[in-house]
């Protein structure tokens, strides 16, 4: 069958199950039943602190086929995923599903666990490095499931993904399981992705290298959600957890794109008091924030909130009074960590609150402007941030589809050509975000507006911005690079791309 | 049948269902399934703000027999319960269950709704005033269900009580349902009892008199849990919401009891660094806090936390460095409200985190010393704080049984005789808290230790405190007042007293 975007999908995928095809960004909505959580009640005098992973695994019932969850706030510094899976592998457990909110190069040891059958399934919103490469090569027994950040909360809440054990990398915890992300040598700030794990996993384990006297303060995940606490020497490498600083691009093309994007924002009429804004941590995205900052300051505009993964640039905007609040699901740099630990207006949000399509209203629903990246865009405005142009996995939606769906104005900023490859194509290798959610594509050579947004086309026509059709933009790129050769893919499905509502928006096939 | 305390219970109670008898404080524990929550997903552009109750009731499906929930942080200043039930009554809805965390004299209009069949069932952890009197007189169609604060969270989490609509009195809210309790003219501080309502009710309505621009900051209940926001002129009478100040007793007997209780605490060995403590807002209870404060200061003791409903006295102890943190489920006075809104070490806790026996470990489990009140105590140490000695309802457990069960040392402080009636009896009119959870009874004339606590008896014998058996204490009281006449009760059950685990610890019968 084909979904509404014309993507060929099987009815059933081994290891995944029946495929519910994507039918449009808000078609699968309405009344949704969440799963029933099962809790082992803890009575007074019971202790939760265990000496190490071995002692922990002695206490919990282990079996083949378990689902083990992790959150990724420690990013490429995370030790916890490897420690936990190694410990389970030593016990001879097989067929594990690793449900990590994201996977980084540091998780390379998973590749061996995939090869020897310890790990046979992976869920992630983003993956890069050796694991992503191995999945692309078909080294995982079953297809990986790529979801969105909000989609992961939905998966857990709905019970579509039932987690047996969640390991929560806890920068700070007390012996009764109260956790925060803002203190300790491995402080990462927000732990927004871990909240759903703590709510919905059968067994919740806090793994900490900063055990503090009861009670931890502040508390981001509360004791009533946590079964065990494991003390380890180190949960991560601080150098990999947060960047010292995130940097605005110095590339003149990136700066030009940012300037044009800011003009699009202004022309849209959304840059005004009470506005809300989100951007990523990439160099060009940050440059857009910088442009916006200058405009807001010049015009005396005070926005309501900025959201998302938070960088020092956004913190500066808060501190300069340009936004009243921040909603933070993940801190990207040290300044963000420091801010969330001291400024009450810098608020932590869970990934469900951030982007879940099936709760009572996520923060993305209140977003005015979202700045997005892209690896590929097609003439239907579908965006790929999941696979490289050679078909291998090198990323994933993260919050891409969530924010695109929620925001009033979703702007993709990208160079028209990267590494001699045009970014705009007839057909993206993989659809991460459907074109209906993408309003504008801004490149250094031209700007294309989604034809659905006739209002915006009118507004931009009144400016001197180089507005053209997406086909014109594609032709322009191809005139520079020649028409790119279609990549050749096998029939083997190595990953399923779930839209935020749990429907399948695409599948990823192994490159030939 | 009889439960383990010898209380006669029917197998089945009309309007309540099958009776599961109380079998001991921790007998009903282990693995517990929570209920599956059903959520109506909110998509972008949908609005939650409605003009008034009428507009709200136009939007939700109304039917006879609904369960409507309220929290009681506005206490005797609360307007929301009456507004909501009046609005439902105007629509001709009948047979409502009112699940209010507590009921106060201000809720007197409920009595008419009981009489005319609009309200036929009530759940509450505490009730006083006209509603309590009417329930005692059998004016409610079905027996009221009296539970504990932690038990209410358990009722909602387990699905034993399914709430159709929760009305959350919101001192501050934005139009998308983010709520806090610390700002606005009706600020009440913590809204810990409302958290379970927001998690588990089918429809969650924020009722606010302080609608702020999105997003509210701080946020105690998040937008992803809230369906509608109703703006009203006033949610409550500030004079009834918080006391200006709470007062230590000036009664010399109360002060003597407090002094003795403090000596019991010291003798127990629990008054030391890292200790935790909770007391109520009554005059004698506060006097105990005052005694403890002096001891801690003198001895340079720093405790870990104080918990519960929080008063200015406890705030002072935090500010003087005597405790590292506070866990606050409800603020009793203005100083507590100010503190929770400014001091990060003054932490809000949900009622589940506070006292739910069926989660992964409540704060009461970590309590060292708990100071409790009593209306009656029997020679098995069972305590009644639910009914007066004439058999009418005038209170309820609140957190009494939760904290008694969790704490290492539960001390009841009470005058030996009140209004010429002895407090210690052969048999309490109603069991609120089982004797197994009560360690010591301190009166001005003598101290009785639960025989289970042989360790404590030894420790107290080494002091000059007037330790005696509970029977001796009872005889002493009776020597002053004469043996009290047993009250005469009918066979009509007007209320069921649920222990925190959902078993039935007693029933309340209509006095003759």
UniProtKB/TrEMBL annotation, chains A, B:
Its EC number is 2.8.3.10, 4.1.3.6. It catalyses: citrate = oxaloacetate + acetate; citrate + acetyl-CoA = (3S)-citryl-CoA + acetate. It comes from the Bacteria. It holds the Pfam family CitF. InterPro entries: Citrate_lyase_asu, NagB/RpiA_transferase-like. One of its GO terms (molecular function) is citrate (pro-3S)-lyase activity. Keywords: Cytoplasm, Lyase, Transferase. The keyword Nucleotide-binding does not apply. GO terms for biological process: acetyl-CoA metabolic process. GO terms for cellular component: ATP-independent citrate lyase complex; cytoplasm. It is found in: Cytoplasm. The keyword Methyltransferase does not apply. This is Citrate lyase alpha chain.
């Amino acid at each position: 069958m084909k979904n509404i975007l014309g993507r060929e999908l099987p009815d059933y995928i081994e290891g995944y199950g029946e495929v519910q095809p994507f039918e449009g960004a808000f078609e699968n909505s309405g009344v949704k039943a969440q799963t029933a959580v099962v809790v082992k009640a803890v009575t007074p005098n019971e202790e939760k602190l265990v000496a190490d992973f071995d002692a922990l695994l002695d206490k919990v019932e282990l079996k083949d086929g378990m689902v083990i969850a992790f959150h990724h706030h420690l990013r490429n510094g995370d030790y916890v995923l490897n420690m936990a899976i190694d410990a389970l592998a030593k016990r001879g457990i097989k067929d594990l599903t690793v449900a990590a909110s994201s996977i980084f190069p540091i998780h390379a040891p998973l590749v061996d666990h995939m090869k020897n059958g310890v790990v046979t399934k992976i869920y992630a919103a983003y993956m890069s490095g050796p694991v992503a490469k191995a999945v692309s090569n078909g080294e995982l027994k079953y297809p990986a499931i790529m979801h969105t950040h909000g989609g992961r909360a939905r998966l857990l809440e709905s019970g579509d993904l039932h987690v047996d054990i969640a390991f929560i990398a806890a920068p700070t915890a007390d012996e009764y399981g109260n956790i925060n992300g803002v203190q300790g040598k491995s402080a990462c700030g927000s732990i927004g992705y871990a909240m759903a794990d703590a709510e919905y996993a059968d067994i919740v384990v806090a793994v900490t290298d900063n055990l503090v006297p009861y009670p931890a303060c502040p508390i981001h995940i509360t004791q009533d959600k946590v079964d065990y606490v494991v003390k380890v020497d180190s949960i991560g490498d601080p150098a990999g957890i947060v960047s010292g600083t995130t940097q605005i691009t110095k590339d003149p093309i990136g700066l030009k794109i940012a300037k044009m994007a800011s003009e699009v924002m202004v022309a849209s009429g959304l840059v005004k008091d009470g506005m809300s804004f989100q951007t990523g941590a990439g160099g060009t995205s940050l440059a857009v924030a910088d442009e916006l900052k200058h405009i807001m300051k010049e015009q005396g505009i005070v926005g309501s909130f900025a959201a998302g993964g938070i960088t020092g640039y956004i913190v500066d905007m808060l501190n300069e009074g340009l936004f009243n609040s921040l909603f933070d699901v993940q801190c990207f740099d040290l300044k963000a960590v420091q801010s969330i630990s001291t400024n009450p207006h810098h608020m932590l949000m869970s990934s469900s609150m951030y982007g879940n399509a099936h709760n009572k209203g996520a923060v993305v629903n209140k977003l005015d402007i979202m700045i997005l990246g892209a690896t590929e865009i097609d003439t239907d405005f579908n965006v790929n941030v999941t696979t490289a142009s050679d078909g291998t996995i090198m990323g994933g939606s993260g919050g891409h589809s969530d924010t695109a769906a929620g925001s009033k104005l979703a702007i993709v900023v990208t160079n028209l050509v990267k590494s001699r490859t045009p970014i705009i194509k007839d057909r993206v290798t993989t659809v991460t975000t459907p074109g209906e959610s993408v309003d504008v594509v801004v490149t250094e050579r031209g700007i294309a507006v989604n034809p659905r947004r006739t209002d915006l086309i009118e507004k931009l026509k009144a400016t001197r911005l180089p507005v053209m059709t997406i086909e014109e933009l594609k032709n322009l790129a191809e005139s520079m690079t020649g028409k790119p050769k279609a990549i050749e893919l096998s029939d083997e499905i190595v990953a399923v791309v779930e839209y935020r509502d749990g429907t399948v928006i695409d599948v990823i096939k192994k490159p030939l």
